[in-house]
Amino acid sequence: MSSEKTKIVIGIDDTDSREGMCTTYLCALLRDELSSFAKIISDPILVRLNPTIPYKTRGNASVALFIECGDKEKVIRHVTEKIASMACLDNENTNPGVVFVDEGQFDAVKSELSSFFRRAVKDVIMIDEAKELASELDLEFHAFKNGRGLIGALSACGAMLDPEWDHTYEYLAYREKEVWDTRRKVDESSLFEADRQTYPDTWDTVDLANNMVVCVPHSGDPVLYGIRGKDASSVEKAASFVVSEPVERVCVYRTNQGTDMHLISVSSISEIEEMHSYILEGEVLSEPITIRGGHTIFPLKDAAGDVIDCAAFEPTKNFREIIRKLIPGDKVVVYGSVTENTVNVEKIKITGLAKAYDIRNPPCPSCGKRMKSAGSGQGYRCKKCGTSSVIPERTAIERDILPGFYEVPPCARRHLAKQLLRFENEDLPVFPGR
């Protein structure tokens, strides 16, 4: 065995299931275990990939570690054995992948892995492409079962090797194993205090508009809570206010959460594909309607006359009230993912408001009383005087909404959606949804 040290990037994905485990927990555990015989070089990375992928478990996250060690084979053996023992391999949708990139390969693979990472956040990538890329680049990798996790593992390696992407931070606290699958014990008032003390340097800890805690998950995974913010010191400060059950370990991740990295700008609806996310400009075609289940939907028309439905689904709560105030002719830009030919709106930019009118039957020019309808399409008639008119009375009314940016509340925020508080140098007002 050589005593020469080497740097290694380790990417891991798809070890969890909807019922339990968490790939970020496995990464935190490995970081702590590997630190006994390897040096941890930088913050671990947590990257969220395309949020529309149907194969995802919960948040479609992959992770990466950057270490320096004197025994690469020992590291590979330890990591693969830990994945084999802890991943939810009995679940048909859990298909882990792990990739190891040696520093001697960094220069040769950085560009392709970075491109792969950026595509995986926006696009749909097949398993075979990931396997082919790993083989072509001569990377050490292990695919469990069908190996779908290789997509995320390669992406996380690409993110670690490429510093040129917008990032935020998340502080994740993990539960002691004995209490997994039991109700979490976190003092809610302490989370509201953490928000008061650190917002806007941290965000999405609580939802003030709906009086809800949003940083504590409800599934059976090991995460106790997660604090998101602009840098490591801010999320650590917020966590210092939290009162909770005992914490087994914590980990601060650098992440692409809250960056809008998944969004693709398009100029027309004809460019849109299913399972992708977009920024799309258009005009409200008709008044929004609220359907069964509380979902509010309106049709958006682009410059070419093509139309697509845009939806503020029930979980977006008070955001739907903004959408319901739109009228035909309003100019808007929508931000969101497309599934079943519908845009799931995450944010909306209202750039122009159409004039609104109160339309009433016209007054009779002779007696001053309001005319009555003369029948469908036949205008109006005064029964007393016999006068008629085809033009209703139109009075301009003030709109109960302003041009600007509006977003869904924290309780409905997607991992990748950029918070309005992170928007800078905008030409329109910003109305945070908290």
TrEMBL record:
Function: ATP-dependent agmatine transferase that catalyzes the formation of 2-agmatinylcytidine (agm2C) at the wobble position (C34) of tRNA(Ile2), converting the codon specificity from AUG to AUA.
Keywords of this entry: ATP-binding, Cytoplasm, Ligase, Nucleotide-binding, tRNA processing
Localization: Cytoplasm
Gene source species: Methanolobus sediminis
The TiaS C-terminal zinc ribbon domain, residue ranges: 361-401
Lineage: Archaea, Methanobacteriati, Methanobacteriota, Stenosarchaea group, Methanomicrobia
E.C. code: 6.3.4.22
Cellular component annotations (GO), alphabetically ordered: cytoplasm
GO biological process: tRNA wobble cytosine modification
Family the UniProt entry places it in: Belongs to the TiaS family.
Designated name of the protein: tRNA(Ile2) 2-agmatinylcytidine synthetase TiaS
CDD domains: RPA2_OBF_like
